[in-house]
Amino acid sequence: MSKLLTGDVKTHLFRLTLPTIAGTFAMMVFNLTDTFFVSRLGTEELAAMGFTFSVVMIVGALSIGFSTGAASIISRALGARNRPLARRTVSDGLVLTICGTLVVSTLGYFSITRIFTLLGAEGRVLSLVEGYMQVWFMGAVFAILPPVSDSCLRAAGDMLRPVIVMIACAVLNVGLDAVLIFGWGPIPAMGIKGAAVATVIARGTGAMASLLLLHYQHHLIDWEFPQIRRLLQSWKNIIQLGVPAAITQALTPVAQGFYIRLAAGVGGVQAVAAMATGTRIEMIVFMIAISYAMAIVPFVGHNFGANAHDRVQETRRISIRFALVYAGCTFLVMLPAARWISSWFSSDAEVIGLSTTYLIVGSLGHAGLHISLWMSQLLNAMGKPKPVLMINLCRVFLFIMPLSFVGSHFYGFMGLVGGLALGNLCSGMLAYRLTRYVLRRV
Predict the structure, then answer these.
(1) Which of 308, 417, 423, 322 has the alpha carbon at shortest distance from 375?
(2) How far is CA 326 from the centre of its chain?
(3) DSSP at 159
(4) Domain ranges of the chain
(5) Which of 4, 39, 89, 390 is the residue whose CA sits 20 to 30 A from 223?
(6) Is 182 exposed, middle or buried (0-12, 13-18, 19+ CB in 10 A)?
(7) How far apart, in whole angstroms, are the C-alpha atoms of residue 366 and residue 406?
(8) What distance in Å separates the CA atoms of residue 4 and residue 36, rounded to the nearest whole number?
(9) pTM for the whole thing?
(10) How deeply is 29 buried, as exposed, middle or buried, from its count of CB atoms within 10 A (0-12, 13-18, 19+)?
(11) In sequence order, what are the residues at sequence separation of 6 or more whose Cβ sits closer than 8 angstroms to the Cβ of residue 255?
(12) Is residue 197 predicted with pLDDT exceeding 90?
């Protein structure tokens, strides 16, 4: 029987969240390392990296979708003591990830110039982007596979080993970046292309480590080739559950692009820089929130699969209270510290002032943002994708975009950030009501 089915709910959630914070930090370091080293090459190289982010994030939505769908089925199967289904889903999810990534990366490889020309890259910057993305697309399977294999481990309740793998990958990526980008001894300097090679090697190493753990530690890979009908049905189940998560991931850069464009209209370059600074700082603040979201999936999945609905209800209540306390603490910290923290990232007085406004006013909406994220994860773990899709589509298109647009029109940058905060609060209220409704009907 799963250990998550007995014992105090708060204790389990804390125990599952704590090690994941280190893994989340490691992934932040991993993602920032490339930008840090490439920035030492020059402005054009840094601009080229900037062009790649949106495409990499959209392709990365595949891994979010596959990992979410597979983790939901695996965790519920283990809670219901249906280990054969869990083993089959791990295997089918990994194969689906490999096949789907190969298709997308092949199409992307032969469309690099067209895609990035449309995005505005030209001249030497376009040439640099082509060199980076050619390597990235060729190794995309290794770049996309780790989140899926790590998610399968977490679905089994193993939160520590994925963290160790992520930390090791981050350390490996730092060393490879320094060597491959700038060269060392007999190894020639590869420039921005070296950053792509480092990413592929580091992530590929992490994927292999996770697969070995799945096989030898948890015995969760079924090597038997399934019937085609069963394989296609398994893929269908994973995709149905993963689509809302993938769409949510893809919506993030859409929403960010929208309100950054609004910021440029009301405050120019300084406002855009302030938004960029503020979102960087928020990523540090959100480390605990992201880690807690990861912890929700195995706990809720195991208990829902075992029909322990009272423990799922308790998780919802704990999460709502935690969101309010967490956001309140963030606001109280930002009141005296926002300007000081913003000064770490910029020396421009106007940028610091606008970034301070973003951090303080924006934190008023953090409770809604946390509730939206955590209730989406809870519903995903229950195998309820439609409410998740509704929450996140409404958050972006019904709340954030209209409210931030109206706010910016009447009150400039302050109104833009206020609209963003209010949109997050409205989204949180919707997530709260939808989750309560769904749980009452199960």
Answers:
(1) 322
(2) 20
(3) -
(4) 3-226, 253-441
(5) 4
(6) middle
(7) 20
(8) 40
(9) 0.86
(10) middle
(11) 396, 400, 401
(12) yes
